[in-house]
Write a structure and sequence with these properties.
mainly beta; 10-stranded mixed beta sheet; 2 helices
Length: 163
């Protein structure tokens, strides 16, 4: 009986969940003007594991529906479409960014203003989940050459506070 217990313990200890191997970096949701019904979340998924992982769904309390999306070029026109999964190969990074893969937040239940925080739960193909609190911020558009281009929207603000 003891050998069976040790064998079972070794078997279960060797099972790794995707959420333990996948590190989420630079996650944020796009700030949108009041009344805008949809937004998106972006991040880098870094798979430190030895096995491929797949993101299969996401959820957030700020949206009625949360879907995985990509942009594809259809006859020279960029179109957004829902996808079943986002692959995260072992030892590699998968980038969710404007103009590419992203998590779509549809039917916003609240305004998403720069500086807010929202919840986002990612679910992987093995059933594991990762719950996040991510910031809301303005996203720079990505142009067809794949690079982000900033347009000078800077405003000088004095953020000093006297007490």
């Amino acid at each position: 009986m003891r050998k069976l217990f040790v064998a079972s313990a070794l078997l279960f200890s060797s099972l790794a969940f995707a959420c333990e191997d996948v590190v989420i970096e630079n996650a944020f949701a796009r700030a949108v003007p009041p009344g805008q019904p949809n937004s998106a979340a972006f991040m880098t998924l870094d798979n430190h594991g030895h096995h491929d992982a797949s993101l299969v769904s996401a959820s957030s309390s700020v949206a009625e529906v949360t879907e995985l999306h990509t942009h594809t070029d259809v006859d020279g026109v960029m179109q957004m479409r829902q996808i079943d999964r986002i692959e995260i190969p072992a030892g590699q990074q998968t980038h969710l960014q404007p103009g590419g893969l992203h998590v779509m937040l549809i039917g916003l239940k609240q305004n998403l203003a720069d500086g807010d925080q929202i919840d986002l739960t990612l679910t992987f193909a093995d059933g594991s989940e990762k719950a996040l609190e991510i910031p809301v911020r303005h996203a720079m558009p990505v142009h067809s050459d794949g690079h982000q281009h900033s347009h000078d929207h800077s405003h000088s603000h004095d953020h000093s506070h006297s007490h």
